[in-house]
Amino acid sequence: MWIKELKLKNYRNYREIKAQFSSGLNIFIGKNAQGKTNFLEAIYFLSLTRSHRTRFDKELIRFNKREALISGYIQRSDAKIPLEISLSDRGRVTKVNHLKQAKLSDYVGTMTVVLFAPEDLQLVKGAPRLRRKFMDIDLGQIKPVYLSDLSHYNHVLKQRNTYLKTAEKIDSDFLAVLNEQLADYGSRVIGHRSAFIRDLEKEADKHHQIISNDLERLHIHYSSSVPYTDYSETYKEFIKQLQKKQARDMIKKNTSVGPHRDDLEFFINDINADFGSQGQHRSLILSLKLAEIELIKAVTGDYPILLLDDVMSELDSQRQTKLLQGIKENVQTFITTTSLEHLTNLPDNLKIFMIDQGQIKEENPKIT
C-alpha cells in the first residue's frame, strides 16, 4: 500500500497544495516551523481521522478559515482508493471511494500507517495513557471490531461514572446492569489487547535481538486490572472485581476496574526497561515500530505507510542503519528533517521535497 497523492486545503499553515509521492522513500526538508510536521500529520490524519498532536479538529483548520479539506488516494495491491476528510465547525465528514462513512470503524483501516515521532521515546517511561493510546491506534487499524468494542466500552464507562457522580442514591439494580455491560465490552477489549501484545512481543523481540547484536531479549507484559484467560472467565472476574471495588467507586465517584486503567511493562533481559539507558529505550521503540509494520502486513496483507517525524537525528548511525535495513523495499516511507547531512544509506527510489512557509516544492535528489 502507498499514498500516491495528497491534497490539502486550509490545513494548518497550508492554503492549497498538492503533492505526488514516490512509492519508496520521501523526504521533507525544511527549517523548523515551516510545515514539515504539519504535512506528515495530514497523512496520519487521513489514515486515522485523528492527529497525533492535538485532540481538537479546529486547531487543524487554517487561521481565519472555517473549513479544511484533506484528500488523496492510495494504491493497494488490488485497487486505487480515494480518501477524503472535510473539517468544519459542523464536524467532520469522512469518505472512502467518494462515499460518506457513517462509522469510524468503516473508515479506519483503509489506509494504515506507523508513526515514529520524538514523543514515542516517552513510551517506556511516560504515563500509562501513552501506552494505552499505542495499543488503541495499532489495534484499531488491523481489527475494526476492536474500535467498536472500545467505543461501546467507553460509552458505558462514561454512563457509570456520570451515574456515580450525580445520583443522590445509588440504585443497586441499575448499577448491576451497567456493571454487566461494562464487563461485557471490557472483557472483549482486554481479549483483543492480550492477543495483540502476544503477537507484538514475538515480532518485536526478533528485531530487538538484531538491533542489540543478540545481546538483549525483549519482553512485553500486558498489565490488566482483570487478567485475561478467556471471555467467559474474564467476564466473571470483571463482575467480581467491580463488586469488590463498588464501595470505593461510590466514594471516589469513578470506576477503578477495567481496560481504561491497563498498562504495558517492558523488560530487557528480564530487567524493567524503566531502568535502562536512553540508548536501550531507543532500541526498544525502534523494535516496536518495525514489529508494527510486520503485524499490520500479516493481518491486512499490505504493508503500512511509515512516517518518521524528525526522529533520524535522535538515532545514532548504528540505529539509523538498523532502521533503514529493517524497512522493507515495498514500505513507503516519509521522513521529516532539517537537512540530509545525518542521513546515510539512502535508496535510489526516493523523492525530496523542500518545505518553506507552507509551500512544498519537489527537488531533484543529489545524494552523494
TrEMBL record:
Question: What GO terms are given for molecular function?
Answer: ATP binding; single-stranded DNA binding
Superkingdom: Bacteria
Source species: Streptococcus chenjunshii
InterPro entries, sorted: DNA-binding_RecF, DNA-binding_RecF_CS, P-loop_NTPase, RecF/RecN/SMC_N, RecF_2
Record has tRNA processing as a keyword = no
Q: Where does ATP bind?
A: G30, K31, N32, A33, Q34, G35, K36, T37
Residue span(s) of domain RecF/RecN/SMC N-terminal: 3-360
For this entry, the protein name equals DNA replication and repair protein RecF
Q: What does this protein do?
A: The RecF protein is involved in DNA metabolism; it is required for DNA replication and normal SOS inducibility. RecF binds preferentially to single-stranded, linear DNA. It also seems to bind ATP.
- A Gene Ontology term for the protein's cellular component: cytoplasm
| Alphabetic keyword roster | ATP-binding, Cytoplasm, DNA damage, DNA repair, DNA replication, DNA-binding, Nucleotide-binding, SOS response
Q: Per the annotation, which location comes first and is thus the protein's main one? A: cytoplasm
- Give the matching NCBIfam families: recf (TIGR00611)
Where is this protein localized, as stated in its record? Cytoplasm
Gene Ontology biological process: DNA replication; DNA synthesis involved in DNA repair; double-strand break repair; SOS response
Q: Which family does it belong to?
A: Belongs to the RecF family.
